[in-house]
Amino acid sequence: MPRTLTRADYLNAEIPKPEPFAVPELRIDGDAEDPVVFIKHLDGNGRTDLGKKLSSTKSEADTQAIAVIVGVVDDAGVPLFTDADIKAIEAKDGTLLFRLAERVLAINGFGRKATEDIEKNSVTTPKSVSGSNSPTDTPAPSAS
Predict the structure, then answer these.
(1) So what's the architecture of 34-121 in CATH?
(2) Is the pTM of this model over 0.90?
C-alpha cells in the first residue's frame, strides 16, 4: 500500500522547477541544438491570477500573449516578458505564440474545459486558447 501523505508533506512540498521547452522556431544558424525557454509552474495564487487575466482578454492573441507573459521564464525562473510586451509578442510568429501559450496553460492545469470556461466568461469569445484535441483537463505531453 502506498504511503499516505500528511499535512506536513503537502505544506513542505516544493513547486516544481520551470520545465525546459524547445523553441526550434528561434534557432539561429550555428546553434547545435534548439534553443529553449522555461515554462513556470504557478502556485495557487498565480494560477488564480492567470485565470482572472485570461477571462478579461479581448482576443485569442491577447489570451495567448498573457499566458506567455505569465508563464515563460528563464532558467532562474525570472519572467522573460512584462505586460508592456503584449503587442510585441502578438506581432511575432503565431505558431510559436500558440505553442508557448498551449504549454503554459497545459502544465498549469488549464485543460480544455478550463479554457472553455475562461473563454465563455471573457469579454469576447476567442475560438480556442489551447487548440488541443486532448481530453478535458489533460495536460499535453512535455516537448523536450
Answers:
(1) 2-Layer Sandwich (3.30)
(2) no
